[in-house]
Amino acid sequence: MNNRISFSLSEAEKKEILAALNVLNTKLLPKLTELAQGEVRELPVMGDKSYGFVFKALEYAKQYPEYASLIDVEEFEKDVNSVGLLREIHVPLAQLTKKVHDTMTLAGSEAYVSGLAYYGTSKEAMKRKLPNAVLITEELSKRFPGRNKTKKEE
After folding, report:
1. For labelling alongside 145, which of 5, 52, 69, 74 has CA 20 to 30 A away?
2. pLDDT tens, per residue, the chain with 154 residues
3. Number of domains into which the chain is organized
4. Domain that holds residue 117
5. Start-to-end CA span in the chain (Å)
6. Do the Cβ atoms of 61 and 79 come closer than 8 Å?
């Protein structure tokens, strides 16, 4: 078996990371908004290309307020500044989240493969009537995430 990951954290590192997450949850989370999935699809989205357009529109709205009768320029500026600030947070956070997810996926995959290998070995040991093999195999078979047996199969 190819072991591609060997991840661990000391207890001190874990406490530091959890404390940092606590700071994000107490300082940032209360200021954030959550949209329902349907809401996201209905909103016009400002991406990388439209960011420059919006920023320039704000400059003109401040410079020529006579054309800004349909908007609140102060709120417009707050929204533009919010996007800039949140982008600074989002990019590194998204990279970190992806790496955490990928690392968790790889570690989980390796653990699952090891569990399957051990289960296979215990089944083979049970066939040979080795000590404790029945106990191990029966207990693992109850927890095995394979397909459920129908009443006919039982």
Report:
1. 5
2. 689 999 999 999 999 999 999 999 999 999 999 999 899 999 999 988 899 999 999 999 999 999 999 999 999 999 999 999 999 999 999 999 999 999 999 999 999 999 999 999 999 999 999 999 999 999 999 997 765 555 455 4
3. 1
4. 46-143
5. 34
6. no
